[in-house]
Amino acid sequence: MWIDQVERKMRAGSEKPAGGCGAIEHREDLLQVLAVDESRGIVWHLGFGSWVPRGNGGDTAMSMAARFSFCGTIVFFRRSRMSQAFRCILALLFGISLTTAVTACRSDSRVGEPAQSGGAASPDLTVEKPPPAETSVAANTMGQGWSFDAGSSGAVPDGWRPAETNGAGTPATWEMVAQSDAPSAPNVFGVTSSANYGATFNVALADGARFQDLDLSVAVSAVSGEEDQGGGPVWRAADSANYYIARWNPLEKNFRLYFVKDGRRKQLATAAATGDTSAWHVIRVVAVSAHIDCYFDGEKLLSVDDETFAGAGLVGLWTKADAAALFDDLHVTPVGS
Q: Quick one: fold of 144-334?
């Protein structure tokens, strides 16, 4: 047995120092015995030891040497002082300790190694980062323009949404049409037909970009309308019922600025304006904070302060009731306050 081998090696050990104790070294690096008290017949092991499993020819039995270290005191009694049964119990306990240490060693050696093919995959402990919190929509800091030339006649431009204020169930027809005399041919966009009347406003909003302080211009051509004609741009729109509107009406020969809040329109300023209905005219709006200036064909006709809509909003186009009108070259540039 292994204990017999240890006892034989102890007897063949080095010279004993005074006091009856001698330093014994296990030559095969299986165990280091620090002290032997022959008079008491006890072998004491104190300190550290190491074990290396070996296969044929001295090679390691596993893919890499499994080593463990343990610290403690192991007491072995000589054959003459203990029964065979007790010696077996001690040997069994030592074997259990050895097996536990080897198992722990082999488990530790696999920490951080990828799973082997054919084995069970390690659970994915990666914690997903939460998505960033939504932020409020900020004003666009880049200019934007629409020439309405992309796409085909009869279609609504990408990113545009026709709508109504105080709709009566007969929405106007918004579409692109070919117009050879347009400021930027070949196509324009607008209302080509409408059966609406009274306080129904035809609106088309450009979804996506929002502007607060801006310099806006658009070309407009009044096509037809018995109750109303002409139209103009909207800005700082929250939806189809809340926005500012500057419009030209050739029937009334005026140019006016309104706000529409919860579907109800209120006039802020008005000026006389005449224009040839067969020609294109340019409406320009400069809105900075609460101040709004409106131009018709390059002349500033309206100037007012109003704080009804102070935040960023959508831009769009507008006609009233049965007015059919076309629009081209809509440009929006943010300006500093």
A: Jelly Rolls (2.60.120)
